[in-house]
Specification:
586 residues, alpha/beta, ABC transporter transmembrane region fold, Rossmann fold, 2 domains, 21 helices, 12 strands, 64% helix, 11% strand, binds adenosine-5'-triphosphate, transmembrane, transmembrane helix, transport
């Protein structure tokens, strides 16, 4: 509830206006039956045309209040609900950008999508239904019963008892059915996770002939959801018919008791229809409110899930004394006090939160300006983790990681990432154009700068595309080959001015000739910065100024290729295995 209040607060004017309009709608609705009764009881019985006309005009006014209020109220509630939903979605998205890799893993991509889209839709609908069906109910019930008492004491009492019984039944139904609706939302989450996995991995599923198995897995999830949805529909149909039964019974009672009261001259005939209308109106709103209330626990579950995301304290935050960030677009310049060392690992160790042992142990090495540092090691030795620590996507457990002379934890994340340019292992491009992707690296890049970056990244293939720099890029860059994607990701990284460029296994999909040409162009281009190249292929790092050999998260060798061939057993083993395979080309 606190979360909802927080998001309603900025719209308090709209909330107040919506409630006022709904009140006007209810007032109009409640006035009509009494006016109608008066018209018949007084106007028609006395034959006063003037009374009938005057009362008719007043009724017209009340009807206009009710219908105008209903239309405006619907518009305002829809507007309020969509504004609140939009604010929650934006807040979740903004929050997710603050998450470290492990924070994000706590929820998972599928669940984050459900929380941002499906869950917020449920909340949006709940706000609309609450405003239109639940909030008017107590007003209508209380005022309707008072008006019925004014018409006749016994009729009022009967209506009060009927409403009390229906309310008790409604509360029991809501309490009993709430868990089904909460379960329903968790099934939506599961469906989303399984569907996403199967759609993204559709080609792998086909390649491994796993269609039947995946179909069964999906079928089970859909089946669970369907079973729950059927139960929900049972509940609704049960509610529907019992409510209509109660309404009809109350109608019978009103007419029966009304007839008796008229016979006893305790009230006039047209008052029966007024009480009847109040009874139908109140019971109808109780029925609708009940239907909305059974879905409320689901909306609450959705709100709780949104709150979980919004209230999660990111595990990586800027320290209080971190310097004011530089503008991201500002060109990088020499880091104060350090001309030479751009980045340094100082006895750094790291352990994943869910791991039993350190992934990296006691790493000490520096990346220098104008030099290429390479990291090589077997699969899972911790190479990518080194890159992520430099970007502070994770925080080290012991030791220090420094940018220039400053610990990365004492720099704002914004400044840190403005000074480091990164090509991730999995080259990811955003949907748009080649140019828009390059502008992610440098927002105001000129065509000349883009062409230069493409040339350095050996991406001249772009010029052969029909629309050149404006060629369309599909989500993830799937309309390009793996090698083309890598080169475009490299172009995006090198167009950004930075002190440190990190290439995480970014040359793996390139042929040897392109790999060699790209490295030569990079070395030439990046003389003023430090390069950190993570690679599996010896040929990619052969000429690096310094090679770090990682084994099980430990540095087991450090030096030039020739030095390492002499002194490092692990390096020699990698080199020899690749030379046997004919990979180590210059
Ligand atoms: N989020 C995570 N949680 C727990 N352990 C992880 C996580 N990510 C990676 N690891 C583990 O950390 C170790 C190092 O992973 P890393 O990705 O750095 O290896 P790598 O040397 O880059 O491997 P590759 O060459 O295959 O890309 C691996 O053993 C991996 O299982």
């Amino acid at each position: 509830m606190k979360t909802l209040v927080r998001f309603l607060k900025p719209h308090k004017g709209l909330v107040a206006l919506t409630l006022l309009i709904l009140l006007i709608d209810n007032a109009g609705t409640l006035l009509v039956p009494t006016m109608l009764a008066n018209m018949v009881n007084v106007g028609i019985t006395s034959g006063s045309t003037e009374y009938i006309l005057r009362n008719g005009l007043l009724m017209l006014g009340a009807t206009a209040m009710a219908s105008g209020g209903a239309v405006t109220g619907s518009y305002l509630t829809a507007r309020l609900a969509s504004r609140v939903a939009c604010d929650i979605r934006c807040a979740i998205y903004r929050k997710s950008l603050e998450f470290s890799a492990s924070d994000f893993e706590r929820f998972g991509t599928g669940a984050m999508i459900t929380r941002t889209l499906g869950d917020i839709n449920v909340i949006q609908q709940a706000i609309i239904m609450t405003c239109q069906m639940v909030l008017p109910m107590p007003v209508l019930a209380v005022v309707g019963i008072i008006l019925a008492f004014r018409i006749d004491y016994q009729m009022g009492l009967m209506l009060l008892i009927a409403v009390a019984i229906v309310m008790v039944l409604a509360v029991i139904t809501v309490a009993k059915t709430a868990p089904i609706f909460i379960r329903l939302q968790s099934f939506v989450d599961r469906m989303n996770v399984v569907l996403r996995e199967n759609i993204v991995g559709a080609r792998v599923i086909r390649a491994f002939g796993r269609e039947q198995r995946e179909e069964q897995r999906e079928g089970r999830v859909f089946e669970d959801y369907a079973q729950n949805a059927i139960r929900v529909n049972y509940v609704f149909s049960g509610l529907d018919c019992s409510c209509f039964f109660v309404m009809n019974m109350v109608e019978v009672c009103v007419i029966w008791l009304g007839g008796n009261r008229v016979g006893a001259h305790a009230m006039q005939i047209a008052s029966i229809s007024a009480v009847l209308e109040y009874a139908i109106l109140i019971l109808f709103f109780i029925m609708m409110a009940q239907m909305v209330m059974v879905t409320m626990p689901r909306a609450k579950a959705c709100l709780d899930r949104a709150r979980e995301v919004l209230e999660l304290e990111p595990s990586i935050v800027d320290s209080a004394d971190a310097k004011v960030p530089l503008a991201v677009a500002a060109p990088a310049r020499a880091l104060a006090g350090e001309r030479d060392v751009v980045a340094r690992f100082d006895h750094a160790s790291f352990r994943f939160a869910d791991a039993d042992e350190d992934t990296l142990h006691d790493l000490t090495f520096s990346c220098r300006r104008g030099q290429t540092t390479a990291i090589i090691g077997s699969t899972g030795s911790g190479k990518s983790t080194v890159a992520k620590l430099l970007l502070r996507l994770h925080d080290i457990t012991r030791g220090r990681v420094l940018l220039g002379e400053r610990d990365v934890r004492d720099i704002t994340q914004r400044e840190l990432r403005a000074r480091v340019s990164y090509v991730p292992q999995k080259a990811w491009l955003f949907s748009g154009t080649v140019a828009s992707n390059l502008r992610d690296g440098l927002p105001d890049a000129t065509e000349e700068q883009m062409r230069h970056a493409l040339d350095v990244a050996q991406s001249q293939f772009v010029y052969d595309l029909e629309r050149g720099l404006d060629a369309a890029v599909a989500q993830g860059g799937t309309n390009f080959s793996g090698g083309q994607r890598q080169r475009l990701a490299i172009a995006r990284a090198i167009i950004k001015p930075a002190d440190l460029y990190i290439f995480d296994d970014s040359f793996s999909a390139l042929d040897f000739k392109t790999d060699a040409a790209l490295r030569a162009a990079l070395t030439q281009e990046m003389r003023g910065s430090a390069l950190l190249i993570i690679a599996q292929r010896i040929s990619t790092i052969l000429h690096a100024d310094q090679i770090i050999v990682l084994k099980d998260g430990e540095v087991v060798g450090q030096g030039h290729h020739e030095e390492l061939m002499e002194t490092c057993e692990a390096y020699r083993a990698i080199a020899e295995s690749q030379m046997r395979g004919g990979e180590a080309h210059e």
